[in-house]
Amino acid sequence: QNAVQCSFQILPKHNSRLNSARNGAENEGMKFHVAPMQCYTNRHLRYLLRQLSRKAVLWTEMEKVETYRTTAGTDDDETHAWLERAVRHHPIEHPLVLQLGGNDPESLSRATEYASSVRRTGGGGAFCGINLNCGCPSVESGGADYGATLMRDGRSTRHLLEAMKMKAGLHLPVSVKCRIGIVENYGAHSDETTQEFPEASYEPLAEWVHEITKTGAVDGGLVVHARTAVLSGLSPVKNRHVPPLRYDLVERLADDFPGLDICLNGGVAGVQHARTLAQGLAGNLDSEPMKGKFDGIMLGRSVLERPLDLFLIDSDPLFRFHSGRNSNEHSDNDGGGLSLGLRATSVESAIANYCDYAANAVARKEAAVCDVAMPLVLVSEQLQESLDYFDENRHDHDYEADITRTPPLLSEEQLRKAFVATWEGLEHIADARGTKLKQTKIDSTLVRVAEQHGEHLPIKKLSKLLKQTMGKKVANKVKRNRSENTISS
User: Fold this and answer.
1) How far apart are CA 360 and CA 350, in angstroms?
2) How many CB atoms within 10 Å of residue 203?
3) Cβ burial 7-37 (10 Å sphere, 16+ → b, else e)
4) What is the Cα–Cα distance from 385 to 406, expressed in whole angstroms?
């Protein structure tokens, strides 16, 4: 054990906040992360999001190493197949973080070793970081002893992280995603108001962070969801909004651990809210600037609600390109390992590029239609809500008084062009499958003419086309999950 600890202690400290201060880069901005979300942040949605933004740091879904341990056993072929699927992604997705879930050091070590060995096309590591999930509260109820349960024992969690770091080496930072604390049980029959919720305590959080970081195994920083995790008594959905937000505890953590990169997560309601937080204008942050305190900010469910808003990130000086100790792998211009020619120049072209990718994947039988259509359901829902907003605002002078509707960040022109691109993309995907869309009276030519002449667009028919393409039950499930009254994962 002493030999392991010594090997970590000699690792060079890497901290974006400290390095920025030393270089005088006070206005460098924060990193912008898209949270790992099960069943959503797969390689297809990540491809679309990368078309929209080069700055955004994307995350995989949580890959459960327990699945590998129980299904693969000692069979090398099965082990390799599981690992290959877990790390599979398109080269342009970088910067990309691989998140692992588990409590077995051997399985975590082997998965980390494999991820560390995978290289991107053209050279460079496939991942800009690897993360241990210590914040998901739902896995405990399913009988697994990882996720947020790892916050029970900092020493055991540190041993897991040390096993990962031994295989990650210097070029692959290891990070942790956690909550501000855990509650073992929250009464299922209570009224679930935040007033009755147990108050979070800072000291256990600080002690846990000190324990897991003291040997240097966590060299990629912390992503802290500013809510307590309830291990029993609350559903995953309610775990995202019943526990009260405590940004102040995360801010205090950043002050007390100046050598640790800390990313703020939880309750970030969209790109505009992320901007507000980055400017330090939120009242519960005492209006103090967050620059220099936090390395980044992470959005979750709000990205599912308005994925197209990510197009605005790259032009915003509040957010910076990803950079790290493997920065020599990046091009001089983009700061993120993605050539300028691959990032779309408009929302419309981002959707068109994604649909080309999706159609090619379907034609080569590398992906099912229902899988590649899922991101387009999210796009379609955003388009419908945003275009309805503009339409109703033109005809109802009292509509502006409806504070439950957030004005779109994208212009009406951008949204209308995106609508046409989505319709054309669906036709492209259907052609790749060898079928035609069942809509007989309207095609993409008529839709484009309507857009060019400022006429009404068949918004609801687009939703029907998506149901036809991917199946009504699957499409409705995506829409229901998207409309959860939650705003971050």
Assistant:
1) 16
2) 8
3) ebeeeeebbbbeebeeeeeeebbbbbbbbbb
4) 10
User: Which residue(s) pair with 222 in the sheet?
Assistant: 176, 262
| Residue of 272, 300, 267 lying closest to 481 (CA atoms) | 300
Tokens of 351: 């959707």
Q: Are 261 and 220 in contact (CB under 8 A)?
A: yes
Q: Which two tokens stand for residue 262?
A: 């800390």
Instruction: Cite the active site residues.
Output: 136
Residues 162-179: tens digit of each pLDDT: 999 999 998 899 999 999
For the segment 419-462, what is each residue's pLDDT rounded down to a tens digit? 999 999 999 999 998 877 666 567 888 888 888 878 889 888 89
**What gap in Å lies between CA 194 and CA 191, rounded to an integer?**
9
Contact 388, 459 (CB under 8 A): yes
pLDDT digits (tens, 9 = 90+) for 58-80: 999 999 987 665 554 555 666 66
Q: How far is CA 28 from CA 218, 286, 340, 381, in A?
A: 23, 22, 20, 34
The token pair at 56 is 């955004």
Radius of gyration for the chain, computed over Cα atoms and rounded to the nearest angstrom:
23
**Peptide bond before 95: cis, by omega within 30 degrees of 0?**
yes
Token couple for 191: 């009224």
Q: Which two tokens stand for residue 412?
A: 């009406």
